[in-house]
Amino acid sequence: MINTIEITKFDSKIKELLYSYQRDPNPIEVNFRGLIPELNNADRYTHLIHTYPAKLLPHIPYFFLNNSFFSKPGDNVLDPFCGSGTVLLESILSGRNAYGVDANPLARLISQVKISTLNAGQLEIEFNHLKKSILKSSSVEFSYPDVVNIDYWFLPHIKNQLSEILASIKKIKSQVVRDFFMLCFSNCSKKVSLADPRVSVPVRLKHENYPKDHPFRAQNIRKLEELKTVNVLDKFSMVVSENLRRLKSYNAIESNLGNGKLVSNNAKKILSPLDNGFNGLKEETVDLIITSPPYAGAQKYVRASSLNLGWTELAKSNELKELDKLSIGRENYRKYEYSTPIETGIDEADKLLKDIYAVNPLRAHIASNYLVEMRIALSESVKTLKVGGHLVLVAANNQVCKKEFRTQEYLRQIAESLGLKLELRLIDDIKSYGLMTKRNKTASIITREWILVFKKL
């Protein structure tokens, strides 16, 4: 949604930042929440249509899209690590055309629904038909989808009710309508599981681990009692109603919107032609890249999505390991894969990783292979970028085996080796607990994000 007042304001702010950085090339602290306070209400259009771990703060793409420096309406914007589609939606709202890439099928489903042209009124009619279909099928026996450890995570009556809803959703003929209800169903499935809602990766809901006077103990007891008698269709209906409300606000936008599309499922393979069912992009067709790539020892995206992937039939339980291998920054490797250290081509990183390898070969391999794969992914993205186009890279440092791993510095060196010039470095403190993520038991909690702005020469 193009706002000329915001464009003027942000143009002035960007001039100020660029001038300041040219005079003193040290990182500049910026509070994006303070800069754009109107976005602090997170429930904006379809952003919260489905939960997803470690979402990008929408203020950042909003700032870099609503100005005349880095792109203009009608330009092409790419996010090669699009996750749940924050950059894609903000690009479309600003009148740009958005292209996304992600290895996780659930992320792609969320992004696709989030940016699709869906009519909330028509979906309400479709939902009435769907509820009638579900109620008619209540006496029919269904087979369960291949959900990892289904009996551990779901009570018997909940499994049955979820299966009834799934069978009716699969009968919907329209792909875009089916995707919308499947996404709502995915959100519902996690809500009625025995997984603790406060933890991104599935952890069994318990109350014994908390003291008697701890609020989480009482909350968990109430949730477990509720699940014993829950009506899953009622829960599903609540999710649908909330998402229809979000869609109505999206439908009400009168300004010209851009278009959105998922172009690949692999950040290391973006250029067309592709053989994975996607169209890919051509070289030098993108005006602006905005992305927040994963970190070394990344969020366990596939594990966090495992229950959703099973119930939506996007991945079977025996496919999760292969799916995880597509994730850059993954943690699961076989011992033979890290039997010898690998070099990244970044002197500072290689020296650090050599020391880490002597203590913990696996964690050294995770970090080094992350940089190797990020070089490939960034190289592919840079090829799609037009000369004079910009890359906005959001990254953060963390620790590997109690040693500082300067992710943003290593990615900066990779980007510059690919022909990009660093024009601006910003730092924003993370105030949201949803982003303060402890990656693994040997990592630190991430509390600052670096925003690096490059120009293709």
What does this 3D model show about the protein?
This protein is an alpha/beta fold and 457 residues long. Helices cover 44% and strands 13% of the residues. The protein has an eight-stranded mixed β-sheet with strand order 1-9-10-6-5-2-3-4, sandwiched between helices. Helix 4 links the parallel strand 2 (76-79) and strand 3 (97-101). The protein is globular and about 70 Å long.
Which structural class do you get from the secondary structure elements?
Answer: alpha/beta
- Average pLDDT confidence is 92
What percentage of the residues does DSSP assign to strands (E)? Answer: 5-15%
What is the gyration radius calculated from CA atoms?
23 Å
Order of secondary-structure elements: HEHHEHEHHHHHHHEEHHHHEEEHEE
Number of DSSP E strands: 10
Q: Report, as a whole number of angstroms, the end-to-end distance.
A: 30 Å
Global shape = globular
Number of helices: 16
Strands of the widest sheet, in order across it, are 1-9-10-6-5-2-3-4
Helix content: 40-55%
Sheet having the most strands: 8 strands, mixed
Uncertain regions spanning at least 5 consecutive residues: 432-444
